[in-house]
Design brief:
Polyamine Oxidase, Chain A, domain 2; eight-stranded mixed sheet
Length: about 475
């Protein structure tokens, strides 16, 4: 039996020949290489076998896989860099990730790339510190040692996942059965309210699930949190390892630049795509600057929340467009913070979108009279991520005497090419639309970690979709 996630149906001859008029404007991905390769809308266009819209992990992976089959591939990226929602920049003299960071051997696609390119791994110990500072719902500050109170904090949370295996017996194969779809009716807030918690475990639950999702608990699908734990061997402890312990030395840039060099495609940066249309002979991709590129097929890796900004002709199917119009619930803020003084290792929590715009802080090193912290919050309780004074005010809720020297962040929620952070579903949202999101539209295919079968919301999911979608493009292009 064919698995729909790996054997996506090829477009019918009628769908391939469907054409339409073009209108509009809007958002997509990248470029490197000499100018040219396209013309104005009135002129001749250069022909490619495939055009990939977006140079994040999904797009670069797809381009590399297409190269293996000998296809002439063009990658168009709206930003002035590769990497998509993974982004490594300098802070305090070292490379740090403003988007994307942690990886694990439980994530088979990204781990294969780590092995392929020989990048090194290092540990982030701060998220697993024994010393914890936490705020209660009223904003009062408390301290604890996890070695003494771990069971009190974690016990009730672990019990929340007692039925995870029943709901998701095969979490990497979403179309095997519908149990997880049928269970996707409640939010994280609903699940927390229905669980018998200690005051401390309730705070930790609200902290963990907001940090995992980047969204307010009332907006986040409980089943999407279950999926993360199921993919981590049905272990809450291992899930914490997977999402926050191991990172790539030198930042994600070490991996995405290796992939860029290996992909063999022409990459054009600062090339925002406005229109993708199916023609009688293939596809035409029109940039916001009016340049036109033609190919036999296209792969869009535009993130879910920005997909609605690209004009497709014929128009996208209703279900695919509907989810983009709604937007997923992931609105995480991630801030690198440098404070005065070399503090010992610690972690800090605050419940959800409650008393602080920062709901999770952890130590990431201390040297030369300063301490580096990484902080997370939700755009549902916003903070100006590059406002040093605003960040200092939030940090002082946990460390009253802290003096913030510098901050570094990228505002993913207001980035026009992402319009949000990693994808986390609203209740009943992506579970009911996943097959539609993965489906091709004529000769246009779609690859994004936002609708991955397994590690959705992770780099692993983006690579998965780049591999699966490029294979489906090859099936189309190699057809007699």
């Amino acid at each position: 039996m064919k698995n729909p996630e790996t054997e996506a149906p090829l477009p019918s001859r009628r769908a391939v020949l469907a054409g339409a008029a073009v209108a509009g404007a809007l958002a997509s991905p990248m470029a490197r290489g000499a100018p040219g390769g396209g013309t104005t809308a009135a002129g001749r266009t250069d022909e490619y076998d495939a055009i990939v819209v977006g140079a994040g992990f999904a797009g670069l992976t797809a381009a590399r896989e297409l190269k293996q089959h000998g296809y002439k591939t063009l990658v168009l990226e709206a930003r002035d860099r590769v990497g998509g929602r993974t982004y490594t920049a300098e802070f305090n003299g070292k490379p740090h990730d403003l988007g994307g960071t942690w990886v694990h051997w439980f994530q088979p696609h990204v781990w294969a790339e780590i092995s392929r390119y020989g990048v090194e791994i290092e540990e982030s110990p701060g998220n697993f510190a024994d010393d914890v500072i936490y705020l209660d719902e009223e904003g009062r500050r408390h301290q604890a040692k996890m070695s003494e109170r771990g069971a009190e904090f974690y016990g009730p949370i672990q019990a929340m996942f007692a039925d995870a295996r029943e709901i998701m017996p095969r979490p990497a194969e979403p179309f095997v059965d519908r149990r997880w779809v049928e269970a996707d009716t409640i939010s994280v807030a609903d699940k927390i309210a229905a669980t018998q918690h200690t005051p401390e475990s309730r705070i930790l639950a609200a902290t963990m699930f907001t940090a995992n999702s980047g969204g307010a608990s009332k907006n986040v699908s409980w089943v999407d949190i279950v999926r993360l734990v199921a993919l981590s061997g049905y272990s809450l402890e291992l899930e914490s390892d997977v999402v926050s312990r191991f990172k790539i030395k030198g930042g994600m840039r070490s991996l995405y630049t290796a992939l860029e060099k290996d992909c063999g495609a022409t990459i054009k940066l600062d090339n925002r795509v406005a229109v993708i249309e199916t023609t009688a002979s293939g596809v035409r991709v029109i940039g916001a600057d009016g340049e036109v590129y033609s190919a036999k097929a296209a792969i869009s890796t535009v993130p879910l929340n920005a997909l609605k900004d690209v004009k497709f002709s014929p128009p996208l199917p209703r279900e695919k467009l509907k989810v983009s119009m709604e937007g997923h619930a992931g609105k995480a803020n991630k801030i690198h913070i440098l404070i005065e003084g070399e503090r010992p290792i610690f972690t800090a929590w605050a419940p959800g979108t409650g008393p602080s715009p920062i709901n999770h802080i952890f130590w990431d090193g201390a040297a030369n009279g300063h301490t580096h912290l990484i902080a997370f919050g939700s755009g549902d309780n916003p903070i100006q991520v590059m406002d040093r004074e605003a960040v200092e005010k939030a940090v002082r809720q946990f460390l009253p005497d802290a003096k913030v020297v510098a901050v570094k962040a990228h505002d993913w929620n207001n980035d026009p090419y992402s319009k949000g952070a990693w994808c986390i579903s609203r209740p009943g949202q992506i579970s009911n639309a996943l097959r539609d999101l993965q489906a091709p539209h004529g000769r246009v295919f779609f690859a994004s970690g936002d609708w991955a079968s397994a590690w959705r919301s992770a780099i692993d999911g983006a690579i998965e979709q780049g591999i699966v979608t490029s294979r489906n493009v090859h099936r189309l292009l190699s057809r007699p």
